[in-house]
Specification:
The strands form three sheets. The protein has a five-stranded parallel sheet, sandwiched between helices. It contains eight helices and twelve strands. α1 (about 25-35) packs across α5, α4 runs parallel beside α8 and α6 packs across α7. The protein has helices at about 25-35, 50-60, 75-85, 100-105, 120-135, 170-180, 190-195, 205-220, and strands at about 15-20, 40-45, 60-65, 90-95, 110-115, 145, 150-155, 160, 165, 185, 230, 235-240.
Length: about 260
């Protein structure tokens, strides 16, 4: 068992809030206890409608969400949470089927943990997701990144394509920023898990799903990607010279549009 990381997110005004949603009171109690000992403020809900109600009142910094819930399943809860805003979600599933885990990621979950799981590992995952989602504590002075019509501000956690804001999850943003920092370089899935998200373990299909979701937001035709290329036998590469506009062969980046 790995020891909990020592580099928790920088201190913020008050503890970070985690909403635990599980219809099994024992699981919810154990998870909440570990998170509270890890320094988090925890609230709980036992079904889908209750999760949405508590999320609105509690305003969590992260949601730990069971897939199988009464009243409304976790996939629908996740969809509705993502519609409200960019709160990170870690999905819990008792199913071993890969399709269920992938579905959770495709509806916007930032990570997943399969039951039975180690509560200590779950706290590690919560730490990891929150470290990357706390835009208010991002290092200052990070340079913006731009290529092929894409523009990313790592400090503000903003990304645009041809001046239009992109709605990216925490994992998608980190992946795009990493690829933009290393244009033209090919990375395997193991390397992306380690370099982008700091994981030394995990299911490689997670990377595949995030690549597919990211392509769906940055490619003109995700079925024929021009920006994020598959390098067969290796992994993926961002083509910094790809044009996102047929009339603009240079594919020059466009800054974000001014808000009215």
């Amino acid at each position: 068992m790995q020891s909990p990381p020592q580099d928790r997110p920088p201190a913020a005004p008050g503890p970070l809030r985690v909403l635990v949603v599980d219809d099994d009171p024992t699981v919810a109690e154990v998870v909440a206890g570990y998170l509270e000992r890890g320094g988090y403020t925890v609230d709980r809900a036992g079904d889908g409608p209750g999760a949405l109600e508590r999320a609105g009142a509690f305003r969590p910094d992260l949601v730990v969400l069971d897939l199988m819930l009464p009243g409304m399943d976790g996939l629908e809860v996740c969809r509705r949470l993502r519609d409200r805003g960019p709160v990170p979600v870690i999905m819990l599933t008792a199913r071993g089927d890969e399709d269920d885990r992938i579905l959770g990621l495709e509806v916007g979950a930032d990570d997943y943990v399969t039951k039975p799981f180690s509560p200590r590992e779950l706290v590690l995952r919560v730490d990891s997701v929150l470290r990357r989602s706390r835009a208010a504590h991002a290092p200052e002075g990070l340079p913006t990144l731009a290529a092929a019509g894409l523009w990313v501000d790592p400090a503000a956690r903003r990304a645009t394509k041809n001046g239009v804001e992109l709605a990216l999850t925490v994992r998608e943003f980190d992946l795009l920023a990493f690829l933009l920092r290393h244009p033209g370089q090919a990375f395997g899935r193991e390397g992306l898990m380690r370099e982008v998200w700091g994981w030394e373990f995990g299911d490689l299909s997670t990377v595949t799903v995030h690549i597919r979701r990211l392509r769906g937001k940055v490619e003109d035709d995700p079925a024929k990607p021009r920006l994020i290329q598959t390098v067969w036998g290796v992994g993926y590469r961002l083509d910094a010279h790809a044009s996102t506009d047929p009339g603009d062969p240079a594919g020059d980046p466009v800054p974000p549009r001014a808000e009215g």
